[in-house]
Write a structure and sequence with these properties.
By secondary structure, the protein is mainly β. The chain has five helices and 20 strands. The radius of gyration is 30 Å and the shape is elongated. It starts with 9 loop residues before the first strand and ends with a strand. β8 and β9 form a beta hairpin.
């Protein structure tokens, strides 16, 4: 034991506690142990057997840990009283793990901060880890795992929890109703490869399935000249998506103005048959060379409400542009270009004006210039009312404000904003 360890001043204790000194270490065990310390720490129970041996006779430092019904939050609280290296105690403090270790069998060689060999298998329920800097966090994850220093696999399941993805999305905390996946990984020296299969997920905003592959990059070929952030291959299909929440899932690599435009322009609607294809050097996404990868999202949109010129792009006091209602069509995001193809809609509120064909395009999402090309038909008086209630009134110096018209109209418009 380290002489720097602070003593556990126990106030109440129940269960069995055992320990013995070894020639170069110690063994410690508990059975149904519960205790409270004088300074308010609480250990709720669980069974643990820990064996630690120092390096000797050419053999490295080694350890074994067997545990069940182990409370991670309680472990993090009493970490300062356990024979752990300072770096391990600091990680427990920063990541603030919670959950229960249902079963754990682990062994290792070398110091915990520089392991030479290790192996572990077990199950953790309701795992919670805080997001720190760019490292993701999670709440409510169940994990069955089996791994060593070369490879591993895990079964992941999350119900009524969340994931926190800082540095990827502006609103990094995402609620998850359900998520399941099979994970596999391999490690050869500094090279790491990870694969997530049979990924199924659902929340209030979307539902679908995916397959994800990631591996470290080749420093000789990658734009970052580094192993990280690596190469990504993501294929996903969504059976449903809420149009009002699309902006939340646009990654931070897309310009802020473009993300704000989507937030303010898409007022309602739903999408089906949404497909994601993302492949290439993460440093180059979404502007990846099409010969080296892809960044493409396609969706069939129905029942949408689109403010194609949202008030956020207008000056104070400007009349609003008419909104497109009951919009249907194809949405395509291809690298840094956004397109709406073959769209149909109703122009304005409470009108019979029909947009029989519409195309919209943002050629570069880093510069949110929107081009709209559409054909409109319907009642000429209704069309005139829409014109006089929009910025076109000022553009025409109110020349049409007093006009009286009858009949039907068919018009083509082309607008750039």
């Amino acid at each position: 034991m380290s002489p720097d360890l602070q003593a556990l001043a126990v106030q109440r204790v129940q269960g069995r506690l055992g320990g013995q000194r070894l020639p170069a270490g110690f063994e410690f065990s508990t059975q149904a142990l519960r205790f409270d310390t004088q300074d308010g720490l609480h250990w709720p129970g669980g069974n643990v057997r820990l064996r630690l041996e120092q390096a000797q006779a050419g053999q490295p430092e080694r350890g074994e840990l067997n545990a069940d019904q182990l409370d991670l939050a309680a472990l993090a609280q009493i970490a300062s009283r356990l024979p752990l290296e300072a770096a391990v105690r600091e990680r427990l403090r920063v990541y603030a793990p919670k959950g229960q270790v249902d079963t754990l069998q682990a062994s290792w060689q070398g110091p915990l901060t520089a392991l030479q060999k290790y192996a572990a298998r077990g199950r953790i329920s309701r795992l919670e880890i805080a997001a720190v800097d760019a490292v993701p966090g999670v709440k409510g994850l169940d994990v069955d795992f089996d791994f060593d220093q070369q490879a591993g696999q895990a079964r992941l399941a999350l119900n009524a929890g969340n994931v926190d993805l800082p540095g990827i999305f502006q609103e990094s905390l995402i609620d998850v109703a359900s998520l399941a996946a099979d994970a596999r990984w391999q490690r050869q020296g500094e090279r790491i490869a990870l694969q997530l299969d049979k990924v199924r997920f659902a929340n209030a905003d979307a539902e679908g399935e995916a397959q994800i592959k990631w591996e470290t990059g080749d420093p000789a070929r990658s734009a970052s000249r580094s192993l990280y952030p690596g190469l990504l291959d993501l294929q996903a299909n969504l059976s449903r998506a809420d149009g009002k929440q699309v902006h939340r899932y646009l990654p931070l690599v897309i310009d802020q103005q473009a993300r704000d435009y989507v937030r303010h322009a898409v007022l309602d609607g739903r999408a089906t048959s949404v497909r994601f294809q993302v492949k290439g050097d993460i440093d180059q996404l979404p502007s990846v060379d099409p010969k080296k990868g892809a960044f493409k999202i396609t969706a069939q949109v129905v029942g949408a409400k689109l403010a194609y010129v949202p008030p956020s792009l207008q000056d104070s006091g400007d009349l609003p542009w008419p909104v497109l209602n009951d919009l249907s069509g194809e949405l395509v995001i291809d690298r840094m270009q956004l397109r709406v193809n073959n769209a149909r809609a109703r122009l304005g509120e409470a009108t019979t004006l029909q947009v029989t064909r519409a195309e919209a395009r943002i050629a570069d999402l880093n510069h949110s210039q929107v081009l709209v090309d559409a054909d409109i038909k319907g009642s000429l008086p209704e069309l005139m009312r829409q014109i006089n209630a929009s910025p076109v009134r000022a553009m025409t110096a109110q020349a049409l404000a007093a006009s009286v018209v009858t009949g039907n109209a068919a018009a083509s418009i082309w607008h750039q904003l």
